[in-house]
């Protein structure tokens, strides 16, 4: 009997897994409760330049993605729960201080503190899922984690908008309370997972193992291509939507993407994994995202653009759980945090390049009278990324028990 046909117990989320999903909902909800209002408060309310506020938000993102590498590595040394707990507490303090900031240095310090918190809990959260989930169930749990995160992404801005009539400091305090609630859920319901306890298992030693893993380095670099594409929902796709229907349509664009993820991500994954393994689903999802972006070159109306966005969202729903499942599968026992931390560089690298590349290509297409230029470029990036991922995942070892 092969591993593929061996029967196993039906999947039912455990209390710890449900607690991690609730945590993810609270994390994303607390984040999006505040971040959309930062620009409104400091630019329109206090008269700061958009460039200064954008610099603060950009540096926060860089700090979080850079520190995620070390958060994941030390989760392997000490166990993920202490790192997640520290990250939630630090993020709560950072967001609370944002509400008190009246100068650029004060806001920057609060934002960097919030970024440090995210760097501490991001990869350890995925390491905890890996440790507390059977290999055959990981894609489903990661998919449900994505559903919970998207639900928070929808709920957070609604709560923030409801509170926006109050002082900005009130919103940040509520967000901080949400992170403290997530901390309580973690400590009460998520069991401790022991760390490696030596320099060879976890810490910088574990990070060194990931860096020397040629297959995983290629996998991480290839995933950067996907994040170049995924970033375009905030750059090229948004610019195209505004050009077609005005500034008021961006909420519909983001709402459609998040709503589809909440409703369809888990059942879509269940359907797809009956026929295809994660190492096949991942390049396929990237190809769907690239195809959606390529078809946007033909979208002459906003409804047509929304139809392409649906295809974009379907591809993204397949990519996220497949990427997380494969990262857990490629990690040696006890080093999931190091691998998730190192793998987060693909988001930092690809997202940064994508933000610059998207705007540059849109401007170049307009200047050269080649409006299809950005969209066909994104399609080419998707095909090259899918090819690189297929190569990195050849002869994949069987999942560990």
From TrEMBL:
Q: How does it sit in the membrane?
A: Multi-pass membrane protein
Domain Major facilitator superfamily (MFS) profile, by residue range, is 16-400
Molecular function in Gene Ontology: transmembrane transporter activity
Q: Which residues cross the membrane?
A: 21-42, 88-121, 141-164, 176-195, 216-235, 241-264, 276-296, 302-320, 340-362, 368-389
Under the heading Gene3D superfamilies, the entry gives:
MFS general substrate transporter like domains (1.20.1250.20)
InterPro entries hit by this protein = MFS, MFS_dom, MFS_trans_sf, MFS_Transporters
- Asked whether the UniProt record includes Transmembrane among its keywords, one would answer yes
Record localization: Cell membrane
UniProt entry keywords in alphabetical sequence: Cell membrane, Membrane, Transmembrane, Transmembrane helix, Transport
One GO CC annotation, please? Answer: plasma membrane
Q: What is this protein called?
A: MFS transporter
- Recorded source organism is Deinococcus aquiradiocola
Lineage start? Bacteria, Thermotogati, Deinococcota, Deinococci, Deinococcales
């Amino acid at each position: 009997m092969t591993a593929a046909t061996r029967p196993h117990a039906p999947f039912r989320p455990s209390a710890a897994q449900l607690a991690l999903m609730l945590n993810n909902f609270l994390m994303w909800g607390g984040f999006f409760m505040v971040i959309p209002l930062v620009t409104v408060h400091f630019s329109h309310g206090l008269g700061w330049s958009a460039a200064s506020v954008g610099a603060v938000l950009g540096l926060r993102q860089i700090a979080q993605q850079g520190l995620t590498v070390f958060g994941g590595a030390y989760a392997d040394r000490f166990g993920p729960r202490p790192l997640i707990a520290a990250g939630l507490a630090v993020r709560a303090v950072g967001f609370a201080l944002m509400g008190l900031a009246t100068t650029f240095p004060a806001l920057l310090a609060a934002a960097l503190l919030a970024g440090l918190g995210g760097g501490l809990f991001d990869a350890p959260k995925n390491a905890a899922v890996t440790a507390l989930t059977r290999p055959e169930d990981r894609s489903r749990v990661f998919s449900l984690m994505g559903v919970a995160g998207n639900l928070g992404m929808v709920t957070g801005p609604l709560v923030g908008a409801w509170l926006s009539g109050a002082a900005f400091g009130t919103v940040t305090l509520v967000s901080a309370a949400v992170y403290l609630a997530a901390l309580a859920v973690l400590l009460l319901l998520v069991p401790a997972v022991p760390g490696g306890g030596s320099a060879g298992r976890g810490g910088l030693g574990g990070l060194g193992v990931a860096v020397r893993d040629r297959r995983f380095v290629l996998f991480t670099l290839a995933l950067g291509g996907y994040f170049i594409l995924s970033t375009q929902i905030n750059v090229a796709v948004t610019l195209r939507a505004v050009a077609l229907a005005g500034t008021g349509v961006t909420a519909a664009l983001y709402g459609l993407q998040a709503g589809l993820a909440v409703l369809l991500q888990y059942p879509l994954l269940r359907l797809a994994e009956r026929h295809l393994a994660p190492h096949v689903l991942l390049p396929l999802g990237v190809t769907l995202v690239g195809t959606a972006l390529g078809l946007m070159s033909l979208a002459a109306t906003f409804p047509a653009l929304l139809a392409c966005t649906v295809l974009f969202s379907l591809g993204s729903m397949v990519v996220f759980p497949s990427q997380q499942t494969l990262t857990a599968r490629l990690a040696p026992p006890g080093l999931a945090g190091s691998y998730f931390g190192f793998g987060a560089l693909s988001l930092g690298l690809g997202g940064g390049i994508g933000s610059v590349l998207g705007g540059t290509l849109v401007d170049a297409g307009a200047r050269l009278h080649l409006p299809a230029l950005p969209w066909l470029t994104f399609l080419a990036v998707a095909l090259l990324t899918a090819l690189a991922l297929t190569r990195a995942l050849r002869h994949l070892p069987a999942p560990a028990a």
